[in-house]
Design goal:
The chain is an alpha/beta fold. The protein folds into two domains: 255 residues, QueA-like; 76 residues, Beta Barrel (Thrombin, subunit H), CATH 2.40.10. The protein has eight helices and 19 strands.
């Protein structure tokens, strides 16, 4: 079968603005769920996961916690700035994006939230390395004075309800600037129902960077370079995956961040044997990718021309995803971080697709 060459235009779609969810629903598990299995679609709801998943399946979840990573302030020259911390790199150092009328210079002092001073140590590409004062750890300063960094398509400031609803109920490892949004649908009742069904739960950590919201701009997809993100795959999760596979169960990734963690670790595994790992990943998953670990994927809907839309297209098949998104728009599903979800089954036919 001849391969179809995919370009950036194949991952574009028109989304009515009113379908972008600006607020969470009153209950975490109230969202709709579009089940996609090859070319078959079913309109369901999140609590139906307790029937759609099978005894012996393993759900793997990302337990990262969103930092209060947004800070407003002024430069020593008087100009207003906004800082978005990308990651904490040491007890008193962070890597951050800075929005300002004029870029700050190395050595400049920034007064943040009228509470503490940070010093610009150096510029590193699109980021700045900032030195925070040495008497309090950087994470503590962020949690005390920073603001929750809602995504750019949510057109409002963070409210009190976002402090809980933009975190998963199992978030415990601080380090992200965006939530692993597929996990936002789970509450204690749903987790209990899944465990009563005979499903197991395991955890990984991937700290989501701001690059997750950046669209791909190069028509030649092979030339796009992903941002790097820290991940941790613990030994208990490796054992749970091995036991599940040995018993014939399915590995269900809750979110694209979980999938990227597992598949990144699999790519670096010696002799194909998955091992506990800690490192960074810049894995860019395109149609044609050979998935080694994940069988099913729970995920929200993703931005046009984004790397995450390409990832789900690789997982479920580009044509299936194109039709699924058209169906979701026609049925007025809610999109993006506070929106509805899809349950995808891996499409094993990779022969039809390629990139330039």
């Amino acid at each position: 079968m001849p391969q179809k060459s995919l370009t950036l235009a194949d991952f574009d779609y028109v989304l009515p603005p009113q379908l972008i969810a600006q607020f969470p629903l009153p209950a975490r598990s109230a969202s709709r769920l579009l089940m996609v299995e090859n070319d078959r679609f079913e309109d369901r709801h999140i609590p139906d996961l307790a029937q759609l998943l099978l005894p012996g399946d393993l759900l793997v979840m990302n337990d990262t916690r969103v930092l209060h990573a947004r800070l407003r302030g002024v430069k020593s020259s008087g100009g207003e700035i906004e800082v978005l911390v990308e990651r904490v790199i040491a007890d008193h150092q962070v890597l951050a994006q800075i929005r300002a009328s004029k870029p700050p210079r190395a050595g400049m002092t920034l007064r943040l939230e009228n509470a503490f001073d940070a010093t610009v140590a150096a510029r590193e590409g699109e980021f700045y390395r900032l030195e925070f004062p040495g008497h309090i750890p950087a994470i503590s300063l962020l949690e005390r004075y920073g603001r929750l960094p809602l995504p750019p398509y949510i057109e409002r400031d963070a409210a009190a309800t976002d402090e809980t609803r933009y975190q998963t109920v199992y978030a415990r490892e601080p380090g992200s600037v965006a939530a692993p949004t597929a996990g936002l649908h789970f509450d204690a009742e749903l987790l209990e129902a899944l465990q009563a069904r005979g499903c197991r739960v395991a955890y990984v950590t991937l700290h989501v960077g701001a690059g997750t919201f950046q669209p791909v701009r190069n028509d030649n997809l092979a030339e796009h370079r992903m941002h790097r993100e820290q991940y941790f795959l613990p030994p208990d999760t490796v054992r749970a995956i091995e036991e599940t596979q040995a018993q014939g169960g399915k590995i269900v990734a809750v979110g694209t961040t979980t999938l990227r963690t597992l598949e990144s670790a699999a790519l670096s595994a010696a002799n194909g044997k998955l091992r506990a790992a800690a490192g960074e990943t810049d894995l860019f998953i395109l149609p044609g990718f050979n998935f080694r670990i994940v069988d099913r994927l729970l995920t929200n809907f993703h931005l046009p021309k984004s790397t995450l839309l390409m990832l789900v297209s690789a997982f479920a098949g580009p044509e299936n995803i194109r039709r699924a998104y058209a169906h979701a728009i026609a049925q007025a599903y809610r999109f993006f971080s506070y929106g509805d979800a899809m349950l995808l089954t891996r499409n094993h036919d990779r022969r039809e697709w390629s990139v330039p």
